[in-house]
Design brief:
Layout (H helix, E strand, L loop, with lengths): L9 E3 L4 H4 L9 H10 L5 H4 L12 H17 L3 E3 L5 E8 L4 E11 H5 L3 E2 L6 H14 L1 E2 L3 E5 L3 H10 L6 E4 L4 E8 L2 H12 L4 E5 L1 H17 L11 E8 L4 E3 L1 E5 L7 H9 L2 E7 L11 E6 L2 E7 L12 H11 L13 E5 L4 H9 L5 E4 L5 H9 L10 E3 L9 E2 L2
Parallel strand pairs: 5-10, 7-11
Antiparallel strand pairs: 1-2, 3-4, 3-9, 4-11, 6-20, 7-10, 8-9, 12-19, 13-17, 13-18, 14-16, 15-16, 15-18
Length: about 425
């Protein structure tokens, strides 16, 4: 019985929402974030990326995070950020006008105990260093402005609720420069909140789609505060973290394609001969931007030519071992190209599927990389099975959409 909890969000005044909030804080390159921050002194990026206001070569929490806290307080004092006058849940809808996708979920609070007890399930490892940085940031600022994506099996009840709530005027409605439309409706009626809580607490678990480090960091912060306050009741704000609860059929998984700088010691002929031992290789052509999409069939772009790589043998083993990313890593990256650590080998780079296959081809054509691999997206059912079995997916296996804005609905700690 995982929990969802209503909360009183701190949020921008509606007319300032687009200026104050920004694209997901880790989606923007630092130079783009800096430009936004230079142009608007009350962008929430000043809170989440305070180091960009300084010339220090590295992040210094003791110096940068107090600046973030003061900026946050200034935004509250000036009324740029205002507090909801009651606990709410929020219907949060994102429409990607460029790609033609619509995403809809509910913003609320998730429980740190659910994470600790395995009712919020993970499929990725996290890095302690990143967790510690997040804990320090929350400790200074006492607020979180970007939710974790938790997915669950929805139902007709969710669609009926959304249809009714969205018949009313939204609190926020704007389209940003990236042609992504954001709309938010508060759910204030106790009956509606109870209905959502009832349906979601009937589930066995939530699954983290995006935000493993934010989840882990939030839980570490809760554990830290519990040590400092051993008489805690469980109702304190630090026992919860900001989350976006989205049905599995309302999100989308894109592939994470691979780019390789060189063939190591192999010539192209030797490389293709090595591939032919495991794969049926089909030349496709230069101008074909999209290879056939199915499991265990990879697209490869090398020397101005697309190839289809179809595994010859049926694959046995766990769901993790049969994932396309696992097979590519095992049979090509490790066995042939001797790239043994996808996290750290600088010969390997990743390109999410939202950029399009043409971008993969372009990066090889301009000589930045020697070859590229396109993959079929991992299925949500595979992600859930990996999480249920307590396994961990290879690095950069999935790119989940939507990416929510930072600083639109903010969870303030007491």
């Amino acid at each position: 019985m995982p929990l969802i909890k209503a909360f009183s969000a701190l949020r921008p005044q509606p007319e300032l929402a687009q200026l104050v909030s920004s694209r997901s804080w880790d989606s923007n390159h630092n130079h783009i974030s800096k430009e936004i921050m230079d142009n608007y002194e009350y962008s929430y990026l000043h809170v989440v990326k305070p180091h960009l206001n300084f010339t220090d070569p590295e992040r210094i929490p003791e110096k940068h995070y107090p600046f973030a806290r003061q900026k946050f307080l200034d935004m509250k004092e000036l009324g740029i950020l205002e507090k909801e006058d009651q606990d709410c849940l929020y219907i949060y809808q994102i429409t990607d006008l460029k790609l033609g996708f619509e995403y809809c979920g509910i913003t609320g609070l998730a429980s740190a105990d659910d994470y600790l007890n395995g009712k919020i399930k993970v499929h990725e490892h996290t890095l302690s260093k990143k967790e510690e940085a997040l804990v320090k940031h929350v400790d200074y600022v006492k607020a979180v402005g970007e939710p974790v994506l938790l997915t669950f099996e929805g139902g007709t009840w969710f669609d009926r609720l959304v249809d009714r709530v969205e018949s009313e005027e939204p609190l926020f409605s704007f389209t940003a420069d990236d042609l992504v439309k954001t709309e938010v409706w508060p759910i204030r009626a106790e009956k509606d909140i109870n209905n959502i809580v009832t349906h979601l607490t009937e589930l066995d678990a939530f699954y983290i789609a995006d935000g493993h480090h934010r989840s882990a960091g939030s839980v570490r912060y809760a554990q830290k505060m519990r040590k400092e306050k051993p008489d805690y009741t469980g109702e304190e704000s630090f026992n919860y973290f900001l989350a976006y609860f989205i049905p599995t059929d309302k999100l989308k998984i894109f592939e994470f394609n691979r780019l390789v700088k060189d063939l190591g010691s192999l010539s192209e002929t030797q490389f293709l001969e090595a591939l032919a031992k495991k794969f049926t290789i089909t030349p496709i052509g230069h101008s074909t931007l999209q290879v056939q999409r199915k499991s265990h069939l990879f697209g490869m772009y090398l020397n101005e030519m697309w190839y289809g790589l179809d595994l010859k043998e049926a694959q046995e083993g766990s769901v993790l071992e049969k994932l396309d990313v696992s097979l590519l890593e095992k049979y090509i990256l490790k066995e042939i190209l001797h790239i043994h650590d996808s996290k750290s080998d600088d010969r390997l780079s990743f390109l999410d599927g939202t950029k399009g296959i043409h971008r993969l081809q372009e990066m090889v054509d301009i000589g930045e990389f020697k070859l590229g691999f396109s993959l079929f997206p991992t299925k949500i059912e595979e992600v859930i099975q990996v999480a249920d079995e307590g396994l961990v997916m290879p690095p950069k296996s999935t790119w989940f959409e939507p990416k929510l804005r930072t600083g639109l609905l903010i969870y303030e700690m007491d």
